[in-house]
């Protein structure tokens, strides 16, 4: 018998026995159980988010004035990808960038999120 059905059965038996005090306790226990299940789910999601954050932190390095994601699974060939250093440092969000030529200022990008301009960026060394 499912827990939900068992609780209903116990509730009905207690109600028939004129033990409304205990029946109410059963309802309260059921509600507490639902709260704990919800809290457990929230905590599991938080653990997953933190695990993903740690893995991301471990894969980001600072090189040539910007941060790079090493072995970026979102690029073909898992190439290192430059990301906005400001957005990563301040907001902990990853804003992937595409390097463009800025004449004598070399390669760089304008962040699509914060608008900060980065220039004179070298490519990431091949390992
Ligand atoms: Zn940015």
Compact description:
By secondary structure, the chain is an alpha+beta fold. Helix content is 48%, strand content 17%.
How many separate domains? 2
User: How widely separated are the two ends?
Assistant: 59 Å
Put simply, the count of helices is 3
Please give the largest β-sheet.
3 strands, antiparallel
Strand order of the largest sheet: 1-2-3
Using only C-alpha atoms, the radius of gyration works out to 27 Å
Global morphology: rod-shaped
Residue windows where pLDDT falls under 50 for at least 5 positions = none
H/E series? HHEEEHEEE
Could you describe the 3D structure shown?
- The chain is of the alpha+beta class.
- Helices cover 48% and strands 17% of the residues.
- It has 2 domains: 3-53; 64-121, no CATH class.
- It has 3 helices and 6 strands; from the N terminus they run H-H-E-E-E-H-E-E-E.
- A 3-stranded antiparallel sheet has the order 1-2-3. It has a 3-stranded antiparallel sheet with strand order 4-5-6, with no helix packed on it.
- The longest helix is centred in the N-terminal third of the chain and has 40 residues, at 20-59.
- The protein is rod-shaped.
- The mean pLDDT is 90.
- Residues 84, 86-87, 95, 111, 113-114, 116 line the site of zinc ion.
SSE diagram, text form:
Layout: H1 3-16, H2 20-59, E1 60-63, E2 66-69, E3 81-83, H3 85-91, E4 100-101, E5 107-110, E6 117-121
Antiparallel strand pairs: 1-2, 2-3, 4-5, 5-6
The structure holds zinc ion.
The site of zinc ion (ZN) has 8 residues, from helix 3.
Distinctive features:
alpha+beta, 2 domains, three-stranded antiparallel β-sheet, 3 helices, binds zinc ion
